[in-house]
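haha ok so turns out i had the wrong file open the whole time. this is the CORRECT one, sorry everyone. sequence first:
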Amino acid sequence: MYLGALLSALVGMQLPGDRALLVKESLSFKPQVRAGDTVTLTAAIAHKSEATRILDLAVTVEANGEQVAEGEVQLQVRI
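then structure:
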């Protein structure tokens, strides 16, 4: 749940700011993340639609250098 919250915060506060609306989030988890682990979340734009203002992001989550989750996020940029 915590990793999903980090992803939501990334979309809502960082990409592209407070004008992003999280539409869909899908994560596949691998090993557990434990308290004290250093977590790195990486997102790259996989697809962009100018007409609908939708961005699809490919997401990778690492803890202490080991991949612990991957997935995709869809967000809409509001005007």
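The chain is about 15% helix and 55% strand.
again sry for the mixup
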